[in-house]
User: Fold this.
Amino acid sequence: MMATEVKVPTTGNAGEPAVLLEWNVAVGDTVSIGDVVAVLETAKATVEVDTPAAGVVLDLRYAEGDEAPEHDVLLVVGAVGEAVSARTPDAAPSAGASVGASAAPDGASDRSPATARAASPAPEQSPPRGRLSISPRARRLAAERDVDIALIEGSGPFGRIVIADVEAADTAPPTPSATAPVPAPATSRAGREGSVVPVRGARKVTAQRMHASLQGTAQVTLTRYASGDALLAYAARLKEAAALTGAARIGVNDLLLFAAARTLARHPAANSWFSWDGITRFDHVDLGFAVDTGQALLVPVIRDAQSLGLGALAEAAHAAIDRARAGRLAPDEMEGGTFTVSNLGGAGIHWFTPVLNTPQTCILGVGATHRAFPEAPAQLPLSLTFDHRAIDGSAAAALLADIASSIELIDTLAAY
Assistant:
C-alpha cells in the first residue's frame, strides 16, 4: 500500500491559507474512504476534509488553530510502519510524530501509540510548544477557566492535552516553564491587560479586502430616503398570503433585492466592474448581498437576478443564506457579482457607509425604516457608494433615485 497525502482543498481566495479548526483523528487511527478527518475554515466557508484512501493515520502536519497553505499536505494515510516523506520545515504534527518515521525494528510498528511514544525519544514525539496539541473540548474548557495551555503537559496520546489535564491545571498552583516562555499579554497605557485575537481566516480576508478597496478606489457615498410605506404594507400582505397558502415567506429584504435587480437592468454604467484596462458593463445582474453568519461576512451571488420573479429570487436568497450560515457556500457562489446590497435595517442602523466590493463599481446600503412620529410616513434610508473612477455623481444619483422609486412602487413592479 502506498501512503496517500490528504491536502488542503482550494480555498477559493487566490491561495489564502485555511485555518485548521479541528482534527477528527489522531496518529494511529484507522480511517475509511470518505471519513471526515478535519474541519477547516477558509476565507469563505467552513470545509470538512475527507480522506480519499483507507488505512492508518501516519502523520498529522498541523495543529488545531494553525494556518495551512492551500494544497499543502494536512495528513498522511497508509499502512502501519510505512515511511512517509519529511514534513516541511514550518509544519509540525499536532498529535505526535509520524508512525512510519518513528517505527522501530522488531515489531515496534505493531505497538500501540502510547507504547511507541514511551519507547521513543521525547524530542521526536512531542510537538513544538508553539504548536500545542489539544482537543477542541479541552481548548474550550481552558478558555472558560482562563487556564494557560502553554503551561500544561498533555497526558493524552502523543502528548495531546485532554480535558483531565485542563481540570488538573485549574486546581494546581502555576509552575514556571523553562522551555515555554509565556508571551507577555497586550497592555494598554494604563497598564491593564487585553486579549489578542489572531487576524486570520475569514477575518483576515475581510480586513485585506476592505483595506484594499478603500486604498485603491475613489469612493463617494450618496444618501437619500425612500418612502417605506408601500414596502412595509406589501411585505405584510405577502406574510398573510404565505400563512394562508403555506407558501414560502417573502420578506422585506427579498423585496429590496428584487427592486435593486430590476432597477440595475436599466443602469449598465452602475452594473459594472472597473479596471484600468477598461470598464466592463453588464447587461445581466449577478446580485450579491451581504450575509452575517456570526463568524464572518459572506456575500453570496444570485445569478441573472434581473430575470427572476419575486418568488424565485426570494427562494434563491433564502437558500443562499441557509448555506452561508451552515458554512456550506461553495466559493463559486460568491464570485462574479456585478452589484451588492448590504442591509443593516434588521440591526436598527439608519445610516452607514458601505464599502465597495471591488471590482464592482457600486454597493447599496439599506437602513431601518423609521417615522418622525407615529402617524408620519415611514422613511427608508438608502446609501449608495460608487467608484467615481467608473461613473459620475449624476449617474449615481439617477440610479439611487430609480431604486427609491422602485421601492415605492414595489407592489406594482412585482406584477411585471
Observations:
- The chain has two domains: 4-186, 203-413.
- The first strand starts at residue 4 and ends at 7.
